[in-house]
Structure formats: structure tokens, C-alpha cells
């Protein structure tokens, strides 16, 4: 069943707590521009965060310079949101380790989405280093993280959500629905990985017909499961399109995003577990913005993809 409260599926409801990480680079300015295009709920808080490594007044290149730059950015945000007097624009200047401070801010303010920028990957495509600031934020911040790459020319209109039928997948889909206009079709992708079964058939020298039947059976079962998974949302009139691929989930997700020219790629992740190799691979190589939907796991939550036994 859907996780959203009753009525939330029928009416667009914006975010209540948004934070943007700024280091005053071009990429972080893109992140700020994207954050200003996100739907904000009535009475929302919009925090602009800069973390400096300086611990005192060190002249124009230290805390004083950072404070001035941050104040200009916050003033610009307040000007952009002048038609929304209900939105509380907050200036957050902190010192120390950026991922640690961002994690503390997310915890203290109940941030729903932290928006950060990343360098454009190419061409040629250059993946993010594993120890980059963006990857550390994805690993350490216990909130959803939106990684922005190109300059946002419009609201998201070609979102792609990768699901595996877990609770985290539902939260990822529902968060994407909150970020995108109600009229925007959302593509929902599930990757069927039959590589182990196919390899076992090859080792037995099984006829090709068996492998083809295996793929067909898995495809039919997956389409039925996706139909059940999406039924509660389709009943509200939301346009959801099913996409199915076979192979390595990492490669298939990125290939689908490229072929569909997606502008947002969403993955679900549990706070109870560290980022998986799939999550990190997609963030490092994605050709578009990536939303890592991360929510605090309820007590006794099952690992990703595990289904509770029925009585």
C-alpha cells in the first residue's frame, strides 16, 4: 500500500524543509537555482548552508568573506521568494567538516531534501571520485539528497524512478511525485537480473528455449508485480509508465536514463543501511540529476527488497 497520508496523492503538496549546500562555485549556484524551482509547502523553511573550514576571522578569504557571500546569496533567495512571505529563509554559516555539519543541520531541522551541486561529467564522461564531497554527503547525511548537475531550465519533466518493490522504492516514487507537477508522466523502471540463472543453464548445456522461457516467465511476473505496485497511484489519475530491462541493474538504470533523456533519476535508500554499490555507481556516473530518497527506517524495518512473510 502507498505510504503517503490520505489525500496527499490527489493534491500536490510541496516540501516543508529544504536545505541547499553552497560553496559559491558554479555547480552550487546551479543547485540553488534548482532548489528554488522545487515546490514549497505553506510555512516551509528554506535553509542556505555554507560550511567554512576557517575557525576565526581570517580576512576577506576567511569567515568574513564567506559570511558576506552567504548573505548575498540569502538576500537573492529572499528576493526570489518575495511572493511567498510564508516561507522562512534561513542563513546557516558553520565551520568544520562539511558533510558532518550538513548531517547535523538535517537532523536539527528535519530537512527533507538537501540540494547539492556536482561538476558536469563531460564529455568525455568522468565519474565522480569515491572520496568526493558529493559522495560523502550521500553517505553521511541522513536525509534525501538531490545531486544537481546542469543548470535547471525548467521544472523536472522527464523523471525516472528505479524500483525494486521495497518500502524505500515506494518512498522514492512518492517523493518524486511531490517534486514534479501532477501532469508530468513518471517513468518507473525495474531491472530483472537473470544472469545467474542463465549462467546455470549454460553450464548444464540447456537448450536456448529454456533460457527464453525463463526470461518470458520473469518478465510476465515482473509486469504483474509492477501493476500491483503502481495501482494505488494510478487510481488517483497519475500518469505512470512501466519500463523493464534485463541485465546488470547499474548499467541498465544508466542506459535507460540516457535513452529516455531523463532529467531526474531517483533511487530509494534506507537510513538503516549504508549506500549500496548500485547507489554509489549511479551517483558517480549519472548523466542527469540524481535524487537519493532516504528516510529514517522505522523500528524493526526489513532490509531493502525483503518482503515480510504473510500469515
Which features characterize this protein?
alpha/beta, globular, Rossmann fold, ten-stranded mixed sheet, 311 residues
The top level CATH class name: Alpha Beta
**What is the strand tally?**
10
Number of domains: 1
Count of helical stretches? 9
Please give the share of residues in helix: 25-40%
SSE string, helices as H and strands as E? EHEHEHEHEEHEHHEHEHE
Which band does the percent of strand residues land in?
A: 15-25%
Shape field? globular
The CA-CA distance between the termini, in Å, is 17 Å
CATH topology: Rossmann fold
Strand order of the largest sheet: 3-2-1-4-5-10-9-6-7-8
Any low-confidence stretches, pLDDT <50, length ≥5? 7-11, 56-60, 298-311
Category from helices, strands and their pairing: alpha/beta
CATH architecture: 3-Layer(aba) Sandwich
Largest β sheet strand count, sense and barrel closure:
10 strands, mixed
Radius of gyration based on Cα positions? 21 Å
Q: pLDDT average, as an integer?
A: 86
Amino acid at each position: 500500500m502507498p505510504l503517503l497520508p490520505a489525500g496527499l496523492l490527489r493534491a500536490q503538496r510541496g516540501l516543508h524543509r529544504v536545505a541547499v549546500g553552497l560553496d559559491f562555485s558554479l555547480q552550487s549556484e546551479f543547485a540553488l537555482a534548482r532548489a528554488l524551482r522545487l515546490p514549497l509547502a505553506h510555512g516551509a523553511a528554506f535553509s542556505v548552508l555554507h560550511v567554512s573550514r576557517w575557525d576565526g576571522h581570517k580576512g576577506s578569504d576567511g569567515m568574513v568573506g564567506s559570511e558576506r557571500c552567504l548573505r548575498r546569496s540569502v538576500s537573492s533567495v529572499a528576493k526570489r521568494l518575495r511572493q511567498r512571505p510564508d516561507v522562512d529563509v534561513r542563513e546557516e554559516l558553520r565551520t568544520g567538516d562539511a558533510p558532518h555539519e550538513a548531517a547535523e543541520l538535517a537532523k536539527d531541522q528535519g530537512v527533507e531534501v538537501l540540494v547539492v551541486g556536482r561538476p558536469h561529467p563531460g564529455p568525455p564522461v568522468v565519474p565522480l571520485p569515491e572520496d568526493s564531497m558529493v559522495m560523502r554527503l550521500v553517505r553521511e547525511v541522513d536525509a534525501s539528497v538531490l545531486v544537481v548537475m546542469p543548470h535547471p531550465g525548467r521544472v523536472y519533466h522527464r523523471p525516472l524512478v528505479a524500483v525494486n518493490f521495497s518500502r524505500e522504492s515506494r518512498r522514492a516514487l512518492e517523493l518524486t511525485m511531490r517534486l514534479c507537477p501532477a501532469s508530468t508522466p513518471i517513468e518507473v523502471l525495474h531491472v530483472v537480473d537473470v544472469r545467474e540463472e542463465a549462467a546455470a543453464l549454460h553450464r548444464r548445456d540447456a537448450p536456448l528455449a529454456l533460457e527464453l522461457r525463463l526470461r518470458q516467465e520473469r518478465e510476465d511476473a515482473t509486469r504483474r508485480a509492477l501493476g500491483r505496485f503502481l495501482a494505488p497511484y494510478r487510481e488517483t489519475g497519475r500518469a505512470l509508465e512501466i519500463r523493464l530491462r534485463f541485465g546488470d541493474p547499474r548499467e541498465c538504470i544508466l542506459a535507460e536514463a540516457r535513452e529516455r533523456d531523463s532529467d531526474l533519476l531517483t533511487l530509494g535508500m534506507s537510513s538503516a543501511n549504508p549506500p549500496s554499490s548500485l547507489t554509489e555507481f549511479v551517483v558517480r556516473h549519472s548523466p542527469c540529476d540524481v535524487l537519493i530518497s532516504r528516510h529514517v527506517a522505522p523500528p524493526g524495518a526489513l532490509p531493502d527488497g525483503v518482503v515480510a512473510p504473510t500469515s
